[in-house]
Amino acid sequence: MTDTATAARLDAAFADAGVTGWLHAVDVDSGAQVGVRADQPVCTASVHKLCVLVTLHELAAAGALDLTEQVECPPDGRTPGPTGLAAMLDPVRLSLRDTAFLMMSVSDNTAADLLLRRVGLDAVNRTAARLGLTRTRAVHGFGEMLGTMREDAGPGGARALADPHVITRLRALDPARTNRSTPRDMTRLLGAVWRNEAAPPEYGAAMRRIMGLQVWPHRLASGFPFDDVHVAGKTGSLPTLRNEVGVVEYPDGGRYAVAVFTRTAHTAAVLPAADAVIGTAARIAVDALRAP
Question: Known Pfam families for this protein (predicted)?
Answer without folding.
Answer: Beta-lactamase2
